[in-house]
Amino acid sequence: MILVSVCLGLGLVLGVPLALAYLYGPRWSRPFLVVYDRIFRGFPALVLLFLFYFGIGSFPGVHLSPLMTVFLALGLRSAAYQSQIYRGSLLTVTKGQTDAARSLGMSTRQTIWSIIIPQAAYFSLPGLSNEYSILLKDTALAFAVGVMELLTEGKFIALRTQAILPIYLTVGAIYLVLTYGGVLVFWAMERAIRIPGLSGQSRGRME
Amino acid sequence: MSLILEFYPHLLAGLAVTLELIVCAVPLGLLIGIVIAVSRAYGGSLLSPLAYIYQLVFRGTPLLLQLFIIYYGLPRLGIVFNPLTAAIIGFGLCSGAYHSEYLRGALMSIPLGQMEAARALGMGKIQTISSIMLPQMIRRAIPGCSNEITYLIKYSSLAYLVTVIDLTGQGRLIAYATFRFFDAFLIVGLIYLGLVTIANHLLQSLERRVRIPS
Question: What is the pTM of this model?
Answer without folding.
Answer: 0.85
